[in-house]
Amino acid sequence: MKGKEKGRRERPGALVPEMLKNLATPAATEPYPAVHIDVPAGFRGRIEVSDERCIGCSKCSLVCPTECIEMVADERDVAIGTKTVKRKRRPVVHVLSCIRCGLCEESCPTDPKAIYLTEVFAGAYGERDVVVR
Amino acid sequence: MPEVEVSIGPQHPALKEPVSFKVIVDGERIVRLDLDISYNHRGIEKAAEARDFSKALYLIERICGICSHAHATNFAKGVEVLMGIEAPRRAQWIRVLVAELERIHSHLLWLGVAAHEIGYNTMFMYTWRDREIVQDLLEAISGNRVNYGMNRVGGVRRDISGPLADRIRDGLSALEERALAYTELIKEEQTLLVRMRGVGYLSTEQVVALGSVGPVARGSDVPFDVRRNDPYLGYGDIPFDVITSKHGDVFGRVEVRAWELVQSVRIARHVVENLPAGELAVKAPRIAPKGEYVSRYEAPRGELLHYLRGNGTDKVERLAVRTPTLANWPSVVAALKGSVLADVPVVVAAIDPCLSCTSRATIVDLDGGTTKSLLWDELVAYGRAYYRQKEGVG
Amino acid sequence: MSVLYLLLFPGFLFLLGFSFFAEWYDRKLTARMQNRMGPPLLQPFADFVKLLAKEDIVPEGAPARLQAAVPVVAFAAVATAFLYVPVVGVASWFGFPGDLVLVLYLLTLPTILMFLMGWTSGNLFAAVGSLRAVSQLFVYEVPFFLAALAPALILETWTVSDVVAAQSAGRWALVLAPIGFVVALIALQAKLERTPFDIPDAETEIVAGPLTELTGRKLGLWHLAKDMELVTGSALVVALYLGGPTLPGLALAGVLGGAIAFATFFVKVLLVLLVLAVLKAALGRLRIDQLVRWGWTILTPLALLQIALIAVLKGVEWL
Question: What is the pTM (predicted TM-score) of this model?
Answer without folding.
Answer: 0.89
